[in-house]
Automatic annotation (TrEMBL):
This is Bacteriophage Mu GpT domain-containing protein. It comes from Massilia forsythiae. Pfam families: Phage_capsid_4 (PF25209). It comes from the Bacteria.
Length: 371
């Protein structure tokens, strides 16, 4: 009986080991595999020479600049093609930096279904759902319809390009490579955060012609009584409770998040702490952890750029829409693309982010000027 055993291609094994070793050099907290151990002490140029030799290219006698140029211009289809190795490492390093920079908007905003293209999409609000009606004796159900809130948005593409030159390879300038990739990941996370919070601070008009936070929407407070405190929180809660849907139905929305600038961080944590006792014995702090209207504090320094006194509240986005965000289908965050231009000895790296954020419904959002 003949036994057939599939042995992993040496080229693929080497490519994965080189990628593991490079990623570990840039991010030492990542696990270094046994395969990667073989390459951990190699410089970029030594890895490039090894990759070219495995591909079957004769680089004996070639100087350092020639090897670097060949490695960057290699277009073999094998998985050990050096630009492919760098692209593999680049994507992993960028994603690691992206994940290490969590944005506060993810605590309260809702991720919507990813969009298949860049066409404008209209969001149907949760608050537009019709009330249920009693079924008559004949068992006949009555038709209802969703009132279209008409809030629409579309994806926007953001990005930048940097290059890994053959000079950087010869100099083993892995720090510059790492800095660019980590910078891409961190920048993408910061950009998403800015775009979502811009929905609050920008106070743009909604489909009904009124600003997101407006007297007509009954979700904005001004004057001395709006300063962050128990009385102001009580007024916010009452306003949100009394909001009505598109068909005038009572929604009974409860606030879940207290969103504040860094200047109000101490006050926010004090008001939501289980250990906080109001100054008046007759008062009860229902906004504390475990209280009947407990609030989760969210501190965002971006808000300080607009106002050190303004604060916001948001309902749970499972109860009513607030702000939603999404990506292009199949991306889920920043994407790194690489290519080797014919006219220069370098590998270009392009970071692209397809992202959208939009305030969908004002009923679950509230803003107080704090002064």
């Amino acid at each position: 009986m003949t036994k057939i055993t599939t042995i992993r291609d040496e080229q693929e094994t080497n490519a994965q080991g080189m990628a593991d070793a490079l990623l570990h050099r840039m991010a030492p907290t990542t696990k270094l595999t046994e395969n990667g151990q073989r390459f951990r002490h190699m410089t970029l140029l030594e890895l490039a020479r090894e990759s070219l030799e495995v591909e079957g290219l004769n680089v004996r006698g070639k100087d350092r600049m020639e090897v670097a140029a060949l490695a960057l211009q290699s277009r073999n289809m094998g998985t050990s093609d050096f630009p492919s190795i760098l692209a593999n490492v680049g994507n992993k390093r960028m994603r690691l930096a992206y994940q290490q920079n969590p944005a506060t908007y993810q605590l309260w905003a809702r991720r919507a279904a990813d969009l298949p293209d860049f066409k404008s999409v209209t969001a149907v609000q949760i608050s537009s759902a019709p009330d249920l009606l009693r079924v008559n004796e004949d068992g006949e159900f009555q038709y209802g319809k969703m009132q279209d809130g008409a809030e629409s948005y579309s994806l926007i593409t953001y990005g930048r390009i940097v290059a890994l030159t053959r000079q950087a390879m010869v100099n083993d300038d892995l720090r510059a490579f790492d800095t660019a990739l980590a910078g891409f990941g961190s920048a993408a996370a910061r950009l998403e955060n800015r775009l979502v919070y811009a929905q609050l601070t920008g106070n743009a008009p909604m489909a009904d012609g009124n600003a997101l936070f407006d007297a007509q929407h009954k979700n904005a407070a001004t004057g001395a009584g709006s300063a962050l405190g128990l009385d102001a929180l009580s007024a916010m809660r009452a306003s949100m409770r009394q909001q009505r849907g598109l068909q005038s139905e009572t929604l009974n929305i409860a606030p879940s998040f207290l969103i504040v600038p860094a200047a109000l961080e101490q006050d926010a944590y004090k008001l939501t702490s289980a250990n906080y006792t109001p100054s008046r014995f007759a008062d009860v702090n229902e906004f504390r952890e475990g209280g009947r209207s407990s609030l989760t504090p969210v501190v965002e320094p971006l808000l300080d750029n607009v106002s050190a006194t303004q604060w916001y509240a948001a309902a749970n986005n499972g109860q009513v829409d607030t702000v939603e965000y999404c990506y292009l289908a199949g991306t889920d965050g920043p994407v790194l693309e690489t290519w080797n231009p014919f006219n220069i000895d370098a590998m270009n790296m392009k970071c692209r982010l397809d992202f959208a954020a939009k305030a969908i419904d004002y009923r679950g959002l509230y803003r107080a000027d704090g002064k």
